[in-house]
Write a structure and sequence with these properties.
By secondary structure, this protein is of the alpha+beta class. The chain has 2 domains: 114 residues, Rieske [2Fe-2S] iron-sulphur domain (Rieske Iron-sulfur Protein, 3-layer Sandwich); 304 residues, no CATH class. The strands form 6 sheets. Strands 12, 13, 14, 15, 16, 17, 18 and 22 form an 8-stranded antiparallel β-sheet that branches. A 4-stranded antiparallel β-sheet has the order 5-6-7-8, with no helix packed on it. Strand 9 and strand 10 form a beta hairpin. The longest helix is centred in the last third of the chain and has 18 residues.
């Protein structure tokens, strides 16, 4: 890749072409948990925090009525930092000269001005649209005055709170390399390879935890195989890419077990930075890779259960072992070699960076490339076809926005539903039908999908 193209695809700040594209989409800006005093005691008295999104410094706060507001962070008077504003319940007040702004960004007080001053009428701080969905606050940083689209009806957004859970974490790297690890069907056989398998009973009791430990749907000669064995023993998948609709790629990785059986893993990539993958036979992960700026990315994971309700507190505590509050910073990183253990690499895992959280494996892969990967030095192979396809779509979408057009999935998103995923061991000659039927059966058993269907009937 030429250096100028690499720069085009990775820079996201105000005034950049890729930034203009990404501002056409709702972006997660915070977990609702970040305003929970139990997790961050500061929020009890002052529910306000600075945030950074797409290279912009912003102020996120909740007023006394429970309304959230997202404002530009520099005071429109003389640019002081509103992260240090006084939270007054019905507004925030800049400590520099006392100018006060409400949740809509309206200037409601300029106490240092002469009596009768009408300056407030001419001053406004930009406020950005927000919506709450599935435990996350989404922000829209598109052109001021333009109407943002609706969120798509993805499973993670329509599942009830009892069957969903959201979490996040920071990676010290550019958004594009963070996203590309998730649309690479070949890497689990190496980066996430375990040299031994756990007992399936143990793995399935921890149904919301260790990815690749549970069994695939289906059997081999009457045996249920854990995903760890499949990934380890069959490391060269045949990868198929299908365009389901504009902006949606279905990725199918086929691993031939023998003449009669095929392992099938179906995932989806949703433009611009979301993928949907299976965590277990009854759980999916929808993960978004949200640019903080050019060199930092928050991943947001939405867990969706198609079976029993999720234990959100147990899932939260499990994942807090890998990140620190209140900013969801990774405990492992370049500063401590991501926890690399040479003995573990020899005896337990292919990478040697822990067995409980494969997210750290991905973190090492994308952070070790550098803050912004130098793609002029890479040599892509056959298994990188999804990455190449996505880069083509990204470049075309940037050109479309430059020309004043509509990029993929930026509008009319209500037509987008699902999408479903699966890991299964299927008859080699009939894997398409088997995998489709397995996904249909999973959805048929989901109590919340049945309830929604009955309510709509």
């Amino acid at each position: 890749m030429q250096a100028d193209l690499n720069q085009l695809l990775t820079r996201v700040g105000p005034g950049t072409d890729c930034g203009a594209l990404l501002r056409r989409y709702w972006q997660p800006v915070a977990l609702l948990d970040e305003f929970e005093p139990r997790l961050d005691p500061r929020m009890a008295d002052r529910p306000l925090k600075p945030v950074r999104l797409l290279g912009q410094d912003l102020l996120l706060w909740r007023d006394a009525a429970g309304r959230f507001s997202l404002l530009d962070r520099d005071c429109p008077h003389r640019g002081a930092d509103l992260a240090y504003a006084r939270h007054e319940g019905d507004g925030v007040r800049c400590p520099f000269h006392g100018w006060k702004f409400d949740a809509a960004g309206t200037c409601v007080d300029t106490p240092g001005e002469p009596k009768g001053s009408t300056l407030c009428r001419h001053v406004r701080q930009r406020a950005y649209p927000l919506l709450q969905q599935s435990g996350v606050l989404f922000a829209w940083l598109g052109p001021e005055g333009a109407a943002p689209p609706a969120l798509p009806r993805l499973d993670c957004f329509v599942a009830p709170p009892s069957h969903s859970f959201a979490f996040k974490g920071l990676w010290h790297c550019n958004w594009l390399q963070a996203f590309e690890v998730g649309i690479d069907p070949a890497h689990p056989s190496f980066l996430h390879r375990y040299l031994q398998d756990e007992a399936l009973e143990s793995a399935e009791q921890d149904r919301s935890g260790k990815q690749f430990r549970a069994a695939s749907v289906g059997e081999v000669a009457g045996q249920r195989w854990p995903m760890t064995r499949v990934m380890r023993e069959f490391c060269s998948p045949e990868i198929h890419i299908d365009s389901v609709r504009e902006g949606v790629m279905r990725l199918t990785a086929l691993r031939e077990i023998d003449d009669a059986l095929m392992h099938v893993r179906i995932t989806h990539a949703l433009f611009p930075h979301t993928f949907v993958i299976p965590l277990s036979p009854t759980l999916t992960i929808t993960q978004m890779h949200v640019p903080v700026d050019d060199t930092h990315t928050y991943w947001y994971s939405f867990f969706t259960s198609f079976d029993t309700p999720l234990d959100q507190e147990a899932m939260r505590q499990q994942r807090l072992q890998g990140v620190s509050l209140p900013d969801y910073l990774p405990r492992m990183g370049r500063h401590n070699d991501w926890g690399f253990d040479a003995e573990q690499q020899r005896t337990r895992t292919f990478l040697g960076m822990g067995e409980d959280d494969i997210n750290r494996h991905d973190q090492w892969a994308v952070e070790s490339m550098g803050a912004i990967q130098d793609r002029t030095r890479e040599h892509l192979g056959t298994t990188d076809k999804a990455i190449m396809a996505n880069r083509r779509v990204l470049r075309q979408a940037i050109d479309t926005v430059r020309a004043g057009g509509r990029p993929p999935l930026a509008d009319e998103t209500q037509a987008l539903t699902g999408p479903d995923t699966i890991d299964c061991i299927a008859p080699a000659a009939d894997w398409q039908v088997f995998s489709r039927d397995a996904m249909t059966a999973k959805r048929a058993r989901a109590p919340w999908l049945r309830e929604q269907a009955e309510a709509a009937a």
